[in-house]
Amino acid sequence: MMDVPLTVPTILERVRTLYRDREVVSLLMAGRDQGGAPVAQVHRTTYGEVARRALHLASALKELGVRPGDRVATLAVNSYRHLEAYLGIPSMGAVLHTVNIRLHPDQTQWILNHAEDRVLIVENLFAAMIPSIRANCPKLEHIIVMGAGGPEGTLDYETLLAQASGDFEYPDLDERQAAAMCYTSGTTGNPKGVLYSHRSTVLHSLASAPKDALNVGERDVVMAIVPMFHVNAWGLPYTCAVAGAAQVFCGMFSDGVSVARMLEQEKVSITAGVPTIWMGLLAELDRAREAGQPYDLSRLESLVVGGSAAPEALIRAFQTRHGLTLRHAWGMTETHPIGTVSVMPPGVSLTSDEGYALQAKQGRRVPLVELELLSDLTDDGRVETLPHDGHTMGRLLARGPWVASSYYKGEGQANFIELSGKLWFDTGDIATLDERGYMHIQDRSKDLIKSGGEWISSVDLENALMAHPAVAQAAVIAIADPKWDERPLAVLVLRPGQQHPGHAELTAFLAPRFAKWWLPDAYEVVQSIPIGATGKFLKRELRDQFAGYTASGTAAR
Amino acid sequence: MMDVPLTVPTILERVRTLYRDREVVSLLMAGRDQGGAPVAQVHRTTYGEVARRALHLASALKELGVRPGDRVATLAVNSYRHLEAYLGIPSMGAVLHTVNIRLHPDQTQWILNHAEDRVLIVENLFAAMIPSIRANCPKLEHIIVMGAGGPEGTLDYETLLAQASGDFEYPDLDERQAAAMCYTSGTTGNPKGVLYSHRSTVLHSLASAPKDALNVGERDVVMAIVPMFHVNAWGLPYTCAVAGAAQVFCGMFSDGVSVARMLEQEKVSITAGVPTIWMGLLAELDRAREAGQPYDLSRLESLVVGGSAAPEALIRAFQTRHGLTLRHAWGMTETHPIGTVSVMPPGVSLTSDEGYALQAKQGRRVPLVELELLSDLTDDGRVETLPHDGHTMGRLLARGPWVASSYYKGEGQANFIELSGKLWFDTGDIATLDERGYMHIQDRSKDLIKSGGEWISSVDLENALMAHPAVAQAAVIAIADPKWDERPLAVLVLRPGQQHPGHAELTAFLAPRFAKWWLPDAYEVVQSIPIGATGKFLKRELRDQFAGYTASGTAAR
Asked: What residue segments make up the domains of chain B, in order of their start?
């Protein structure tokens, strides 16, 4: 067989030739209204034009002296321009390093320095960050600004593209060289970098396309709301490009109203985001229906949900009230990211109780990914793999051609372990796997509650509590207990106008679904739960806040 | 990223763990009735059982002394046992060499000797061939017979599996090592062997699954009628295994009645075969409907057609009379095989004239495959690539990670050419490519008619002629012409009870669709057109038969 490498240029060439008329739609910020609120403007282009500009970007970077293997960072929202960077940067041999726009400036700069980025492409929305970045990131040689208004000393993205030579030739690329780079969210310790290869990018885009994964084809219109700075937007920009699906980007407009309008107006068939986004959308769909002006989302086939687990109540609400299907996917920065996708097995109906219970799990591994469960250390100091029986919890290990084998600069080696001569990534998740391969995340290992030597899943309790009508958000954390070591405490944010339901009612609400010893010792109401840059609860902060708490309610805060 | 190789064992492990309860159904021959006709019997098993037995087969081969890289041949029809060979042989490091059961015995033996097969697994249906094979293939060390009645000195497949150790461990496999091997049909010269790697097998199974290719998922029931000895049944046994689709095999029963019954009874959703099979099925569906007992094929979503081009008339007949969709795919032994699949672009209806015209083309390249058109030698002795404009005909070149880079033992190097530093396979087909990438095979280069320096496509004329109500089969060949070098002659097989429509009527029938100089000079009726072992017209024999023919009808035969 021919030795044809799996590289990003094959994706760029595919859209440039086969799909050049397919649309790419972006919601850009056109300015602010008199009240200071951002005003959106729809921008329409095609894959042909995006591909042409991506090649100009590749040329321009080469002319700036960027060499194969150099890191080129982006600080940008989802848009056609970010897609140009996705296609153009790896195609000239450099590494696309997408930086989370929501980090603390110190952390952004720490990451730019750690990655030793030579070029930064920054959206004008974030121009205010430039002076500080320039002062603190000495290895950054060029800053390119997308959109008008870049400060002096920066390069204008449009001018650069216009001046670049159009006759770019792809360099010879090895499929194992890096195409992209992401940093973990770093809820513990410093963020760690993960390099994605050309090979893993192409393989992931093939394996995530079929109907039992994300089901992407040329007739689809896909809106990835999951940010392009977040694990390559779950690979969707590439998966869609390979398949020829139209892409819609809502940029900084991810509130329920903006999302609902874009889904309707662009006849979106597949969309993807974290649970928080879908909670916002659900509220808007409910409001519109009650107002007698429901949205027409008849073309919408699936809302892919990942990042954290979607409660079954949310899945049921979308299905029963709006006929819309949430589809769970699971992955991590280290798995590039898709490891599993929820899909109904033959014979199980989506709207049966069994179907809903399965949909609340994270699904089954996509082709080429392997999963395993590992025990804690046994008495004789060994670890062992655990049965896939649907109830035994273990540390989830992953392996596959798009799973990291190390972090950038060799950090965090403890997360990569060898079992019977094979390398596995320890996800830090606690999960179960059943006989048919359905994976169910129980907890992050550091969030798991260890009571009397047994494990209690905070995620399961949270999802159950969020189905209570008075509860908007729930986080369950471990509190120290002299007898059981740890016991669960539920920290709740109530829905507007709701009262604390009381210990007895909440206990009665949970009791039918959990063993008695799983039930929280107490339910505390707070105004808000701290949330990190990727939209997840910061339980570490909650644990600090409730350190020394006892069930009688007299916490030493 | 982890260095996880793309290998057949990952496919075997996937069905063994995730899809073990999914069904595998085979139509076996149970004996013969009093009239000597074969009697069919349905055999049902599961992927779990197939996987278990495949591992026993792998063990057994190892115990027989088969080493990595050794060739293990099969002479078998489509069945669960052949699927076991597909999964088991490559998983122990040997090369699955599927041999066409329809070849002349001399050619079968020539191929077994050329491939230097060490083991042959043969279905008892073909037991009569064993003595001669044994006498003429000295390198063959073991003959294993599937089914009862193997002659003395052969090994029984079931006994072998039962005695093999069940604790097989996969060897370390390099993804670029050979997993399988097929020989070309060899309509010119000796057959040539093509080695398929583990990598190409896995990549092909990923790229052929999405909805714009074969659209295979776990809920599908797939019946590959295309033989498993024919280019790995277009990769379907592997594609289905990766996706978890149930598989149905109709074995030696590929007549219209057997096929229609199996499609209905097993609720098949996807099936695949050559045009001849679909002609037989269409006749049976028409008959049943006219008899007031139509088949219920409501689960059937697509009939994949390849091997040779399906006439538009056949595509229309299935759609308009039975609501069934034929989906063109194109490939060759050298492309492992799928290069293109026909799929409607957004906005084009399947049942519009534009839709039918597109469906009669071979479709667009699947991800990772590249196609190019090459000119004949120019006046200054060079070749050049030709425009993709939908009408310029050129030699079709293919390139991709599942396209051959050479033949076994380095034969036929002239078919592999380098252009701008890249290797391409010269398919020997003459085709057009349009702006959107739709490929349309015009002819085999050797069958093309060169009239007055211009090219005439025999395939286009044949497909148009087969839409005439009197015509069952049509083959158009070149006859020598003193003025134009070559001119087209149409050789026809009439439908039962039909008369020769006459030169004037056929000319009038074709005239609206072709330039005047394309129209055949003559229309000759024959009883049958010679067909080769893979179901294609043997035009070489027709050309011999009509050598010296002149349009006045006085051929020197």
From this structure: 9-21+46-209+233-240, 449-545
